[in-house]
Amino acid sequence: MIISKEEEVLESLRSVIDPEIGLNIIELGLVRNVEIGDEGKVHLTMILTTPFCPYGPQIIAQVKSVLQSVTGQPGVVEMGTEMWDPSMMEEGAGGDWGLF
User: Is the pLDDT of residue 98 over 80?
Assistant: First the structure.
């Protein structure tokens, strides 16, 4: 099965865990958009679970590191303005933690 570069990026980002919640940023629905340019450079838009997340800088640094390892070049991480809501989570995510 052949996967697209976008799918590869999203799957790789599952390694980035929000330390307060213990779920990855894909399960939490924090990645809002991924664009891959002609040169392979990734522009990613994401949000945090709270605007003043104390782990925000650490999470963003990990995302940049993953983008670099997948594409071989630095990616751009832009912070979106929408507020996170539990309905953004992947179906079934958080059930083991009693979030729902």
Answer: no
Domain count, the chain: 1
Give, to the nearest 10 degrees, the angle between helix 5-12 and helix 56-71. Answer: 140
**24 found inside a domain:** yes
- Section 57-64 average pLDDT: 97
Under 8 Å CB-to-CB from 73, ≥6 apart: which residues? Answer: 39, 40, 41
Domain assignment of residue 77, yes or no: yes
Q: Which pTM was predicted?
A: 0.88
Query: Residues 45, 33: contact at Cβ < 8 Å?
Result: yes
Two tokens at 82? 């929408």
